[in-house]
Amino acid sequence: MKKLIYVVTSVIILFIVYRKLNPNKTFSVEVKGNEHLWSFDFTGNPKYWDGWEADGLNVARKIGVIPNFILNMGLASLWVKIINTIAKV
Predict the structure, then answer these.
(1) Dihedral, 48, 44, 60, 68 alpha carbons, nearest 10
(2) Pairwise CA distance, residues 36 & 33, whole Å
(3) Long-range contacts at 59-67 (CB < 8 A, ≥ 24 apart)
(4) The predicted structure's pLDDT at residue 51
(5) How many alpha carbons lie under 13 Å from residue 63 in its C-beta half-sphere?
(6) Where are the domains of the chain?
(7) E strands within the chain?
(8) Among 22, 29, 30, which Cα is nearest to 67's?
(9) Rounded to an integer, what distance in angstroms lies between the CA atom of residue 85 and that of residue 83?
(10) Using one digit for the tens of pLDDT, what is the confidence trace for 22-65?
């Protein structure tokens, strides 16, 4: 039980540090071709969102993205549970 509490506490601390140090979020931009609509993901700062839309880009914020370092540690399911718990508060 102590190990589980340690892991949960560590993940929460990593999440808080990650959010504070990284203001960038994951976005998706749509590009319309002659026959198809294409979508590309990119990382950007939300403070530029109004500028992107003013320039005519169709940009959407992607929600529920799990950071790579969480995936590499094998903590994806724990990450989702913590995010869902935080969202309920």
Answers:
(1) -160
(2) 5
(3) 59/27, 59/28, 59/29, 59/30, 60/27, 60/28, 60/30, 61/25, 61/26, 61/27, 61/28, 62/25, 62/26, 62/27, 62/28, 65/26, 67/18
(4) 92
(5) 4
(6) 2-88
(7) 25-32, 37-44, 58-61
(8) 22
(9) 5
(10) 778 888 899 888 999 899 888 888 889 899 899 998 998 887 77
State the average pLDDT for the chain: 83
Angle at 56 between CA 53 and CA 61, to 5 degrees: 40
Both tokens of 17, joined, read 């540090």
In 10 A of CB 27, how many CB atoms? 20
Instruction: Give me the amino acid identity at 80.
Output: V
Which pair of structure tokens corresponds to residue 76? 């994806």
On the question of pLDDT at 88 being above 80, the answer is: no
Residue 87 has pLDDT above 70, yes or no: no
Q: Return the SS3 of 65.
A: coil
Question: Quick one: tokens of 55?
Answer: 């320039």
